[in-house]
């Protein structure tokens, strides 16, 4: 009973740290996206990919060292697993962004927020926990 309670608290704590990293990574992602779209005048979808890359690098570093405290010695395999999940996430984010922005005529930032939250919670966290940063 006590062990289950401790495990649940640890799981919640890990989830909350992951959400903090997600917010930091998203802030970097959105900063890049807005900068390249609004200041440099690059197409919003390409700007979003650039932002997603910057956010993805941030997410990997913080997740590995702080959220999951991964001690996995095989860093290459871990990076490969992260890139596989990250590329899938990028595809989901990009597709959702285009769908909401182009077909539903939603502002690109609103579209990006909606898709980022859905992909982050439903896809990224779970796969990073059980596939990427498993020890």
Instruction: Quote the average pLDDT.
Output: 90
Number of domains: 1
| Shape estimate | elongated
Termini separation (Å)? Answer: 25 Å
Helix tally equals 4
Count of individual beta strands = 0
Give the % helix: over 70%
Helix/strand order: HHHH
Report the C-alpha radius of gyration, rounded: 16 Å
Structure, described:
The chain is an all-alpha fold. It has one domain. It is built from four helices and no strands. The longest helix has 38 residues, at 2-39. The radius of gyration is 16 Å and the shape is elongated.
Keywords:
4 helices, single chain, 135 residues, mainly alpha, 86% helix
Structure at a glance:
This protein is mainly alpha-helical and 135 residues long. It has helices at residues 2-39, 44-67, 75-103, 108-132. The protein has four helices and no strands.
Strand and helix map with partners:
Layout: H1 2-39, H2 44-67, H3 75-103, H4 108-132
């Amino acid at each position: 009973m006590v062990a289950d309670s401790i495990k649940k608290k640890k799981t919640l704590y890990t989830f909350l740290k992951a959400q903090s990293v997600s917010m930091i990574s998203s802030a970097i992602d959105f900063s890049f996206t807005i900068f390249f779209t609004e200041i440099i005048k690059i197409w919003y979808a390409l700007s979003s990919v650039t932002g997603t890359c910057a956010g993805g690098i941030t997410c990997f570093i913080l997740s590995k060292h702080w959220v999951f405290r991964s001690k996995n010695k095989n860093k290459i395999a871990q990076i490969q697993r992260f890139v596989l999940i990250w590329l899938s996430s990028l595809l989901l984010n990009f597709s959702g962004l285009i769908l909401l922005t182009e077909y539903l005529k939603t502002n690109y930032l609103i579209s990006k927020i909606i898709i980022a939250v859905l992909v982050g919670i439903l896809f990224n966290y779970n796969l990073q926990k059980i596939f990427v940063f498993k020890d």
